[in-house]
Amino acid sequence: MDTRVYNVGLVGYGSSAKVFHIPLIEVVPEFNLYAIVQRNPQPGNNAQKDHPSVRAYRSAEEMVTDREVDVVVVTTTPQTHYEFAKLALEHRKHVEKPFVPTFEEADELQRLAKKQQKVLTVYQNRRWDSDFRTVKELLERNALGRVVELESHFDRYKPSTAGSKSWKMGQVPGGGAIYDLGAHMIDQMVVLFGLPKKITAFLGSQRADNPGGYDDACAVMLHYEGMIATVKAAVVSAETEQLRFWVRGDKGSYKKFHEDCQESHLASGKKPGEDDFGVEPIEHQGILTTVEDGHLISRAYPTVEPIPYSMLYSQFARALVGQGDVPVKVEDASAVIRLIELAKQSSSEGRTVNV
Are 252 and 150 in contact, with CB atoms under 8 Å apart? Predict the structure, then answer.
């Protein structure tokens, strides 16, 4: 087995890098966090001080000329993803990144990666969410029979943006709920059911104070043969327990509240491999209702054992040495971007559109 260690160069040092990328890269033995691009270090936000063994750069243009960098991970804001991914591929680096705002850009990066003979993959970490994997298991077991409807939610109660300085509060290419959370939920539906036949979508703002004018909520209906899958992201949902999944079939249903806990664990400083990482409280188990002897019976259904988000990087490392596919194929990510574009069209035109 090839035991080569790949040097990773990270572009960006915001919350995405600190929570969702660095802690995962650091636990994968085939990867070495080698360099970080941070344009404007601050006293309380300095990559070089936080990671003294890592080489610090002030620009991506400078870092990609470093021959020791094998893999570039892009963690910057969405409108820069295409620029930095293209730059890295042009300098013959492998690339992992959240994807780009348009299908055209995705297609161009795919062709460039093939031309340069480099590996390109996309950060769809929520394929490893335990709640999603539990839904997938139930469908594979046919536990619900013929599924007629699925709802997937990422709802919050954040009715105000007062005091927030996040770039997410403004209108930027690749911004808004449809790209931020919608992209993950749509990807999960494509993993489960493939591409839909039609899309009906509603994008807009639920907040009264939204000076940036961005779309903070979305509801996207994916029309399949004999089934509707709806993905929703809301910011005005005053609930003590937020619905995550509700799946209904002709032999049963499954309802799950609460989000996968890996994000909160990472944000609190926990890392994959530590005790109870990704393990949700038992009281957060979903409810499975089935038909037994003509009666509806409901019981708690155990959430599957967690697989940490770091598996994405482990699989990426194996793909670099030709041992299996990348964790997320570019073709899959491109298809999701195309569905998002169709959802935006549906919302703006007020009609259902064909895929």
Answer: no
